Batch of 3 targets.
Target 1
Amino acid sequence: MAGKLQVSIDHNVCVGNAMCPHLAGKTFALNDDRQGSVIDPDGDTRENVLEAAEACPVSAITVVDAESGEQLFP
Amino acid sequence: MVTAINDDMFSGQAIEDPYGYYGQLRSEDPVHWNEKYKLWVLTRYEDVVWCTRHNELFSSAVFKTDERTPYPEIEESDMGLYDDIRKFFASWFIQHDRPVHMDMRRVLHGYFTPKSMEQWRPMVKSVIKDLLDEADEQGEMDIMRDFATPLPLFVIAQMMGMPYEDRKFIRMLAEKLLFIGRGDIGRMQPLHDGIYELIDYLSPVVEKRIKNPEDDFISVLAEGEKSGIYTREQVVSNAILLLLAGHETTINLICNGSLAFMQHPDQWDLLKNDKGDVVPPLINRATEECLRYDPPVKSIQRIASEDVEMGGKLIRKNDRIRWFITGANRDPEQFEDPDTFDINRWPNAHVGFGSGIHHCLGATLARLEGQEAFKALADRYDTLNLEAREFDYQPSITFRSLKALPVTMAMAAD
Ligand code: HEM
Ligand code: HEM
Ligand code: SF4
């Protein structure tokens, strides 16, 4: 199984386009301000989390491999 | 004390100086009932963001739902034309609500992400180089006519896989659609004709892409037909949406931004002396500041899906609403010195592209075009000199659009 992820969202940039909860709903949800927030970095498969990060229209999502520290996106 | 507010948003004053007009509304009556056009005018940053993010309360299906007559008024005899036009606009995905909106947007979304758009940067640069080379031969240009208008059109034409020879034709049609006087009582006929000419042009192209998909976005839309999300009619109309959406908007980014630089020589110098030592890069920040300071799109329209209380007022179900980016982007509650053009401003959470689920699909492309255009101007010219003293704007409450922007250029030394 792939290792754990560190996922963060830049709220200065996120426009609440809601693609991330749509594509990886166990990892992302909308908060009270209707911006994306991380509920569980390992809620979805690595592929789905990366797909959501790529689909973010403003590249607000950063994904890092928690073990190696390698930045996977962007 | 509240001064009387002139509700004619098409008046000379409101068109020339929307920052004064909507700024006054923002400070005196941020949730304003416009009696003349019978709609709510919202101007505060916080309200605009809140509304865009509460899409369940504010419907985008304006053309489908709104049975009222258009404003400003049109010829009585043109109501039949208006019905056709309404039906056409109603099939745009921008005019849909969840959940259908998500299905329709997803078909195209991947094509327009920051990562996939980056591959078009060299193409955009080369279009810009050709246009400026041509202008240099004259030593002067109308930035609107010679640079800002052809740029997004040539770019989107490439992304549509449109043959080079067809550009002139498309440009002519697009102008028919977009450069007609917005408030003009007789606007329905040219609008109607333009739409049908575009449908006639694009229908056979769609037919071809359905049979032989290529890497353009019409093929992507055609995939959407195969998977049952779009009808054939919707494929055609949404291709037209993409053709137009990048047109009237991006031209204003280029023109309004160039004008801001000419009116703020210190900021132009800053850009020219960019050392490349900040993250995000200065050119990106500058483009965002242009989008904030003099936004291409002034307002967005919705229909209330239910009763909503805002700022002590009751917006009723089915009321027409327009929220003004023009007001929000200059809100002192959100931006320090909001009326200052500061290309170093960061973060810069302007709402030039809207926000929420309808946040501009083409934002990355528009940003890329803006960045490359401003960079090319600053690299190429020592100064841009304004050759006009007065500025004439299109009489539109949707777009902040100059009619012309004549300049002469002084070349950089090397
Ligand atoms: C943001 C979503 C949009 C909404 C809610 C919207 C709404 C409207 C409304 C209410 C009108 C006035 C129609 C009338 O005369 O009563 C209009 C006109 C028009 N819109 Fe949009 N629009 C949107 C986006 C766009 C985009 C992206 C384009 C393409 C650039 C566009 C192009 C036009 C054109 C060409 C007209 C006709 C202008 C005229 O009436 O003279 N619209 N739109
Ligand atoms: C500087 C240039 C641009 C500006 C300022 C701009 C502005 C906007 C705004 C304010 C909206 C939100 C409308 C709403 O909430 O109803 C929007 C939506 C949209 N824009 Fe743009 N736009 C630009 C360029 C483009 C380009 C180049 C394209 C296409 C290639 C495009 C395609 C769209 C589409 C399809 C939508 C609808 C998104 C949805 O409903 O999910 N725009 N744009
Ligand atoms: S996809 Fe991006 S913009 Fe949309 S909610 Fe998620 S982080 Fe925010």
Target 2
Amino acid sequence: MADLSINFAGIRSPNPFWLASAPPSNSGAQVHRAFEAGWGGAVWKTIGAPVLNVSNRYGAWHYGNQKMLAINNVELISDRPLDLNLAEIRDVKRHWPDRAVIASAMVESTPEAWGDIVRRIEDTGADGIELNYGCPHGMSERGMGSAVGQVPEYCEQITRWVKSAASIPVIVKLTPNITSIVYPARAAVAAQADALSLINTINSIVGVDLDTFDITPNIGGKGGHGGYAGPAVKPIALNMLAALGVDEVVSRAGLPISGMGGMSTWKDAAEFLLLGATSLQVCTAVMHYGFRIVEDLCDGLSNWMDAHGFAAIADFRGKSLPRISDFKDFDLSFRAVARIDPAKCIRCDLCYVACNDTAHQCIDLIAADGSRVEPHTYDVRSNGKNDAIHTRPQPRVREEDCVGCRLCYNVCPVEHCIEMVELPPCQPSVTWDQLSKSQREVTESWDAMERYREEHGIHIH
Amino acid sequence: MSNTDRSAIRQPGLTELLPPLTEHEALVEANRCLYCYDAPCTHACPTHIDIPRFIKKIATGNLPGSARTILEANLLGATCARVCPVQELCEGACVLGAEHKPIMIGRLQRYAMDYAYSRNVPMFHAAAKTGMKIAVIGAGPAGLSCAGELAKLGHSATLFEKRPLGGGLSTYGIIVLREPVDIALAEVEMICRFGVELKTGVEIGRDVSFSALRSNYDAIFLSVGLGATPALGIPGEEYCIDGLEYIEQSKIDRDKLQVGRQVIVIGAGNTAIDCATIAKRMGAERVTMVYRRTEQEMTAYPHEYEFIKKEGVEFRFLTQPVKIVADAGNVAGLECVRTELGSVDLSGRPSPRLVPGSEFVIPADQIVKAIGQEKPSLAASLGIETQRGFIKVDDDYQTSMPGVYAGGDCIRSAGAASTVMAVEDGKLAAGAIHRRLTAAAVPAGVL
Ligand SMILES: Cc1cc2nc3c(=O)[nH]c(=O)nc-3n(C[C@H](O)[C@H](O)[C@H](O)COP(=O)(O)OP(=O)(O)OC[C@H]3O[C@@H](n4cnc5c(N)ncnc54)[C@H](O)[C@@H]3O)c2cc1C
Ligand SMILES: Cc1cc2nc3c(=O)[nH]c(=O)nc-3n(C[C@H](O)[C@H](O)[C@H](O)COP(=O)(O)O)c2cc1C
Ligand code: SF4
Ligand code: SF4
Ligand code: SF4
């Protein structure tokens, strides 16, 4: 059994899974139950300035049979009285000394307001403070949340105020609604934050009602942008996490990062860890299925670690970061082609139409006698399952024409039916960066490019 | 009139077996379809409905578009959705069939059709009138399909039907468990709405002569189906009930239907299974199917055989009826002889041989024969060439008589006759007739 425990800027928890600051961590009773279910920690639903919430505050993005691929919300921070929240945080921490209890805060942008909330949070015995610089709606209109997170100078200033008042670890939670996540992160580093967390929700409009023309969800005839989260945002979160991991300033500072955004399985979790996260936070997946999901998050992660011989999370944390690279450093001589396994293929022809209509027209339909046939060519009099099944041609990749774009691999509904097969390179290993230094004209003139290709036998289809 | 308003004709125990899919079920199932390209299910459907297209439209919430996609290829989409042997056709070819469950294509088709019929969605506009007149004889699936397609092309099609109601076997022959009568009749109404004229109670050859039709119409389509149940040729046959009549009564003349306590059904095709189903569901204590070959040779579809076994019907294979035993004018039993299978006969199946001295009597108070249908008689009387008793047609569905076309059960000399095949015949024949009538050379009124 692998050891899942973590030490996050001095905050310990038996496993890396924390409830993100959001509805699942809205009250003491909920966090109690979450801890009973096995969550390693909880970042309390943001407390601070007084607010009022509205109904219909959650919208969702569904795709096919999959419900809630993403959620969209216009919920503000906690609308429960501040004192009640603080009392419950104290109570929960007393009951659960081994779990991470972190208070998320957002108040007016003054040193007094921040100093005051920090003191009151420390009074509860909480393990840390997370600064919510991310809420993209409502609070930002009042100069808080993403209005802070989007301006590195504000981010730095407020973090300094908090750091000067706080004795427990301070985590700065970043908003993804910014051109580069690196700048607010550097600001937090400059202000000596103890840790970072990301991502908060992404600006979004989830839909329009086609009968009433209302914005979805409809809030009394109005609607607007809300924060987007859930499985659909995971790739964006991973990218931002990796961007911090490879940034010189941020990585040199060595702050632990709490990763979140779209995590719903232990596989997602392992990916966040491989890209440098130390703790992990989950919101939407819990809102979809409840606290019980933590069981497989832990179990699956632990089994995977056992299989790879990782005894502790530190053994593989950040292990994939060195593979993050820029296009200019990719090896241009790398070649792969798609290959279909006819034994697994169910002949749905989705690869064929994808390649034929939108990629490089290099999948053929092969009849039983080996000849190439066009689609839609059976006789109208032919019918019945036997005709349909036995005369159906088999898609086959014309490997000499395949550019290895990987579209067919992505659309194929059968596991391991299409493999991308690596081929020996037909030119010496070279990157764009090297090329632009050694043979600059090739990267600047189409004629030179043409000659370069001929020289190396590179065919464009 | 909505489909459910007409439930007066439905009976307890004999109502449509499968419930309609709920909206939720339909969406989940539609989203499960992979949307295959040049899909094998479409190839397998005899009318080649673009199945992924209509299913995708259910998934996107475009139900009028879905219904139109179906009807473009198959005007009898509502009947076919219910009666097609989908295991042998579309669903049997679904790429998800091998490892998972195939998509419920028939039931999704029904979902889209129910939507269209319940809202009277207008589906097609007839093209400008061409002035051409076509007589279609027989308003079963083949005739309806042909007449409807011709009307879509702007021709004037008149359907002559000898029975009081249109629909052919969909109305009179397919048991209510699969298709309620009101569905078949709504389909007839829909086809009449785009300009087809239906004359019921008119038998060609009796009420109107064939030659009169030939001189008044630019083309003729024969879609007369098959005839009554043939004779068994055994003593006591007069006590035997005709299976087709049995089914017909169960559908539209419930009061006349009498079901015995111990019922024997002679035959083992799909019609025989339907008769046994009716007997069982209408209160018979014991229903026995008697067949002179074995279950390997039965012509019923495997899924039908599975169904009837679950209904609790018993089977006597290798059993040849030789005499109906009557007692004071009432059926008392069926005398049978054991058989053995011998060499392969003309039908490609081993022929049964009687085992001498193996006579025995199965007690019964009702005996129903369901041993197929007689060949179409009209063809012979008109001097049209036939093939094994069926009307012979060329690739364009034209008979040996120029300008006279035929399709449906009356031409199906090989393979299983089914509604969807009849619909396709009608559609392809309409195309051929259209090509002939619009080719400049043919002067109107001359066949
Ligand atoms: C009991 C039974 C159950 C069946 N179940 C199924 C099933 O579940 N699924 C399936 O796909 N198929 C089934 N079939 C087969 C299917 O019903 C037929 O293949 C289909 O109806 C053939 O259509 P058709 O138009 O050729 O003939 P029919 O439906 O037989 O229609 C022919 C029409 O022509 C009329 N007619 C005949 N002669 C004349 C004349 N001289 N003048 C005017 N009108 C005339 C008849 O009255 C009839 O209405 C079943 C058949 C039977 C008998
Ligand atoms: C309904 C809802 C309310 C949220 N409220 C807060 C909040 O009060 N404070 C905060 O820092 N983040 C809040 N978040 C953001 C989450 O903490 C988290 O950053 C984001 O949802 C991404 O994680 P996920 O994809 O697992 O949901 C909220 C998210 C949702 C969906
Ligand atoms: S997408 Fe996959 S399963 Fe479908 S035809 Fe192509 S290789 Fe076969
Ligand atoms: S018409 Fe019949 S065979 Fe064709 S798709 Fe519909 S249910 Fe399947
Ligand atoms: S074969 Fe099955 S999965 Fe593919 S389009 Fe047809 S119904 Fe859908």
Target 3
Amino acid sequence: MIEIEDVHKSFGLLEVIKGVTMNVARGEVVSVIGGSGSGKSTLLMCVNGLEPINSGRILVDGTVVHARETDLNKLRTKIGIVFQQWNAFPHLTVLENVMLAPRKVLGKSRQDAEAVAVERLTHVGLADKLKVYPSKLSGGQQQRMAIARALAMSPDYMLLDEVTSALDPQLVGEVLDTLRLLSSEGMTMIVVTHEIRFARDVSNRVAFFHQGRIHEIGPPEQVIGSPRQPETMAFLKSVL
Amino acid sequence: MFNASISPNDILFMLRGAGVTLLLTFWAVLGGTLLGVAFGLLRATAPGWPSYALGTLLDVFRSVPLLIQLILATAFAPIAGLDWQPFTVACLVLAVYASAYCTEIVRGSILAVPLSTRRAARSLGLTWWDDLTVIVFPIALRVGLPSWMNLALGLMKDSALVLWLGIIELLRSSQIVVTRTQEPLLVLMIAGTIYFLISFPIARLGTWFETRWQVHD
Ligand SMILES: Nc1ncnc2c1ncn2[C@@H]1O[C@H](COP(=O)(O)OP(=O)(O)O)[C@@H](O)[C@H]1O
Ligand SMILES: [Mg+2]
């Protein structure tokens, strides 16, 4: 379970997250929608400790993320995160990209890491690209590789930050299908997205972010179907 | 024709000079690279005043002409109580001079690795050190290699300046042969050829690495 309790976060003088409270239960899919600059990416990076916070706290399975004694590298093996830009390691093949962390972080043998990597890459439909370098992949394929790379750590949670925003429209579908597959398998996910239809179909709850706060949160039928806040309505109108 | 007066011994003498040039270049490149990697890493990963101070110090070595540095170091070494051979002084000065350039190459190459790539590595649970050695260095190496090759080749040519310290390297040995044989053009052509024969394999090796790696990006 991910528990976010009254988190505040500033970059210098700019307060980007202004008291966010939200829980994500095991097996739940929560979509985060909201305008650019509202603090969605920052929140995800706080959840796995890539960014420090100013006050409040975040717990992952009861572990306080920003506590001094927390082993972040260990915690991060539980939390897969995929970013908007494709962050392939350009000097490694697709297979090596996915094998790297299981070997380095989990200490798996080459055979074990390779077996897991092949399995995950097959899962996201890249079984025929194992020996290829990432530059030879399309954006959608690179993004699916990044998802497989995160999945190879057998995470309990997946955080996905606008994973389709940088893709050509015709490539969005294949990545969303991969996410649908994950959610059908019971993966716990926080999905930052502008794909409103996807958010409505897949999420258990939708959170609308506005100026560093959760402005509205609830089941998709409510937040997307019949929003109560005028800002939510305005945002939905702007992206639909 | 005009090569009658050059003896095999003269050629041998020049080749021995070339050996000194190679040795000087080797130590300068080795020392400069080791220092440069350490300094460059510091400059790229630990901003703040120590890094800034180091940068300013190295700027001095980059902006004062090498010849002045060589002569000053030779003059001050005995005053500082250091009983060093001119060859040792020359190697050290060249290494520090090289490190000043290498530091900037390393720093620039490390900073050229996108932050988002490093974030992705850390988010997978890789440690700071793993991120540096498995992700940043291999990518930075590809970025920095051409500049580093240029530095190495430049050092080999700059090393000729140590003749002012009385060290008989390739250029100085050529001068001596010229004085003896009065065949400046031929001797310089031979010296130039030797310089080329030393550089060429190094340059080819660099190109080979570049093309080998280019396929992967
Ligand atoms: N590393 C940073 N340093 C300073 N400001 C930042 C940094 N990252 C994000 N910001 C600022 O924080 C705000 C929220 O950014 P972000 O979390 O990326 O929003 P979103 O993902 O919702 O578009 C923006 O105003 C952005 O400019
Ligand atoms: Mg964002």
